[in-house]
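G., before I forget:
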Amino acid sequence: MKASLFFFFLCLFGPFLQAQEAQLQDCVACDFSGRHLPRANGAGLDLHKSMFFKATLVGANFIEANLAQADFTLASLRGANFNQANLEQADLTQASLVKARLIQANLDQAQLAQANLDEAILLRASLQGAKLEGASLQGADLRDADLSGALLFRADLRWADLRGANLQGAILDQADLTGSRLGKAQLQGAWLSRVTWKDVEWETANLSGARWMDGRLCGKESIGVCKP
Amino acid sequence: MELPNQESLDKKQSIPLLLDSVEGRHSLIHPEHYQKGKGFTQQKKANLFYLHLDATPPRSEVSASKGNKVRLKNRMVYGNPVSLSLMGKEVSKVRSGVAGVYVSAETKRYQLYTSPFYYESEGDYEFYYYGVDQVGNVEKPKHFRFSLDFTPPTSQLTVLGPKQEDTFSRRTKIKLQASDAVAGVAQIHYRLQGPTKQKGIYRKQPLSFAKLKNGPYQLSYWALDRVGNREPTQEFSFYLDRLGPQVQVSAEGPSWRYKNKLFLNPQSRLLLTGVDQRSGVERIMYRLGRHFVPYQGPLTLPQQRRSQIAYYALDQVGNRSSLKKLTLVRDDSIPYTSHVLYGPIHREGLKIYGSRKTTIKLEGEDSGSGIASIFYQVDEGAEEKFQRSFNLETEGEHVIRYRAVDRVDNAEATKRLRLTIDNQPPEIAYQFGSPQVSSELDKPVYPLNTLLFVVAVDHAAGLNQLRYRINNQAPHPFSEPLRFRRRGSYQVTLAAEDRVGNIKMVQFKFLIR
């Protein structure tokens, strides 16, 4: 009986015990899929093309790490720190990045479909061409982030802070912008069709050339308002 | 002339023989041949004398040459120059023969008539005459009076009954009278020319025009006396007016007549105007209540909505127009106009959208006299009379003001129709969710699972539907971005239609790799 109880607890807590503050090494195209690596330290490492499929990396440190083309599909990255990390073309589909820190991170062309980025900090992050389809970015800090050409189709941007963000050419079709802040955001050429936009603060947003919610094209000098 | 004295005759005869017996033939016989109780026994011509006792004077007569004449009570009247002859004639059984006829004319002494008298000057004449026979019987002088009458009679025309100058009515009659101082009037002839022709001898009854037709006539007439003198024809023209005046009902103010109804604006007054082609109208009578009263000026309409007026007129010669009745309708109803839009329209709140295919029709109703005109004005353009449905071509919002006026000038307050004309099809925009990765055969290439975002917008009426068709599949309404999960070549056709039927189509090709 005692033996069986021990085995149960081992299975339950074993991974935690095993990955306590794991120190990662440079490893290109390594496979960490399914690994339980909370608070793992990968800061400054080169881990590009590595696999973190369903890996648990809660609170992990990837500051300045090279994670280009890495696969974080379904990975748990809650509270992880990716400040200044290179996540270009990384696949973060359905990854949980709640409260993750991605300050000045490079997420160009990254796949973030249905990723959870609630309250994540993406200050000055680059998300050019990133795929954020269905991603949740509630309360995310995207100030001065570069989201040009990003796909934000059906993204949940409620209460997100997008002040100064570059959303030129971004596709925000059906995105929920309720309560978001878009002051001085660059939305030239952005696709804003069918967005939900209650209480949006965009008095100073540049909407010139944007495809407005009703489908019309905003004229030049559309600052804060879509002019014909 | 003196008759022979009896005494002088007696002295010449040795044996006076008084013959005072019966006039006739008597025989004178010697007494020897007479036997008392036997009478005359023998008669011999030598001893038999016949004595004719003639005690009757002759009878003289006047005879005239042929010609027109008439015997009056105390004289003869000749109508042309006449030659009078005297002739004596024995009237007794014993005719000793007329010795001569003595005549005394012009208060002169008797003279033996020798040749006819010839008279050629008009005037009155008379002479005395008598005859004497061979045995001294002297006719009692006779008196012969005669006149030569070459003067025609003169006739006069008198018009009886109603007339106005030379215009007569059917009740007017003409009486002709003629007089001749000498021979007397024989006949008056007349001839009537005009719509109805008549001629004849005037009788005692005046000429009646009761059966003549209406129109101008000329009556010619002349009289003839009993000795053939004919009056020069006289002419008399007149116009027989059998027609009553025409009464026209009109209004001082707006009115409209339809059949036997006259619709009038409440402010209008009714006018009755009589027109008679000849004699003129004498008076117009009308009845708005119970009794006929003379028309004296414009009439104010009764207060009730419907009333009836009856009226007629009389002309100056008594012709009366037929009694006419007219229903008067006091029309104070305001017309009502509405607009009807045919073709593509879209209502959004109070705003109405249409296109150049939208037809605007204005329809009016009026419960009284009916709609006379509907006027409309597009924006600030001139007001026009609505005649047929119209369309507006120019893009944008227009204000159409319209109002109706009925046939008695009751005007409707101007109404407005705001119509926004949208001739522009929706605008279609599309955007691929992924950037183009390459190009093949002039077609852009996009990665697998690329989303195609499509939006259509219409700047006026709004979008009705957006449909898409991929390759040759059936078209579907667009609702969500299209995701291309299979590699291949695609041709996408997008069609957007706005709410007023304007359609925009976009077609493009690309490859998914």
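The CA atoms of residues 134 and 155 of chain A lie 4 Å apart. The longest helix of chain A spans residues 2-18.

More on Monday.
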